[in-house]
Amino acid sequence: MSTDGKADGVKKADKPAILAKTRENLAKIAQWQEKLYADGREGIVFVLQAMDAAGKDSTIKHAMASLNPQGVDVVSFKQPSKEELAHDYLWRAVRALPERGKIAIFNRSHYEDVLVVQVHELQHTYQIAKRCLEDGDFFEKRYAQIRNFEEYLYDNSYRVVKIFLNVSKDEQKKRFLERIDDKAKNWKFSASDLKEREYWDEYQKLYERAINATATPHSPWYVLPADRKWYTRYLVSEVVLNTLEACGPEFPELPKEDKKNLAACKKILLSQ
Ligand code: AMP
Ligand code: MG
């Protein structure tokens, strides 16, 4: 996978036009989301994965800004709690699924269980039966489990759309330094982020493996350049819009009997 977070061919001069397109997309997204909610037939999960400081949080803030909060759940997947670790790794992903008609944004996700877990070989620290570590390739099995999980969801009227914000190592350094130098951003930085940076190449390799193993027509991965935030936000808005359009929700049409009732109610109201 390319570690270049720059978008080929996009120049700073393009920024005003890109911002205008993003605004257009956001307006369209709001309209589609209302239909998705009213229709209530499909649920959508947007998975956001990235290295630290790639812009997951600001993407949620800006590229999803027009979504009605009533129809959206944002779920952050942090280091698993004791309760979470006492269950299978998909347990918390299942618990975070939205009702149909709603959208869930996973800020990190079940993919951490083939990324950070693989980088640090955390599986050996789990309380699980020996056979789980010995029979076959632990992570190859997990890729297949994730593929099957997402296909299961698709067959049950969900879509899982995965986005990798591909920031470059240089840009990460720049953003870490900003977080250190700017008091208002200090809270975003943790020394452990610097530790994870040492595993940069390992993460890149494992992202590539995970993406190749789990990208399917019904549950695609989008690898988006993430060094220019305004361009990344535009690309994410395109992904969200395209997903909603592919669902193609429609306002439900009332049954004949209910329509008659509406007309009767209107008559009563007008006579008051
Ligand atoms: P952040 O997204 O910066 O708030 O950090 C959350 C941290 O939790 C990241 O370092 C993740 O790698 C870590 N994390 C998320 N899921 C898991 C998991 N299943 N096992 C271990 N660490 C995880
Ligand atoms: Mg972090």
Helix content: 40-55%
What is the fold named in CATH at topology level? Rossmann fold
- CATH architecture identity: 3-Layer(aba) Sandwich
Mean pLDDT: 95
Count the domains.
1
- The largest beta-sheet arranges its strands as 2-3-1-4-5
Number of helices, where a helix is a run of at least 4 consecutive DSSP H or I residues: 12
Q: Which secondary-structure class do the elements indicate?
A: alpha/beta
N- to C-terminal separation?
68 Å
Task: Write down the CATH class.
Answer: Alpha Beta
Strand content: 5-15%
Low-confidence stretches: none
Structure characterization notes:
- The protein has 272 residues and is an alpha/beta fold.
- The chain has one domain (12-271): Rossmann fold, CATH 3.40.50.300.
- It contains 12 helices and 5 strands.
- It has helices spanning 15-39, 56-63, 82-85, 91-95, 116-119, 130-134, 138-155, 169-181, 191-197, 200-214, 229-247, 256-271, and strands spanning 43-50, 72-76, 103-107, 158-166, 221-225.
- Strands 2-3-1-4-5 form a 5-stranded parallel β-sheet, sandwiched between helices.
- Helix 1 runs parallel beside helix 11 and helix 2 (56-63) packs across helix 11 (229-247).
- The termini are far apart.
- The mean pLDDT is 95.
- The structure holds adenosine monophosphate and magnesium ion (MG).
- Residues 52, 77-80, 108, 112-113, 116-117, 122 line the site of adenosine monophosphate (AMP).
Task: Looking at this protein, list some descriptive labels.
single chain, 272 residues, alpha/beta, Rossmann fold, globular, binds adenosine monophosphate, binds magnesium ion
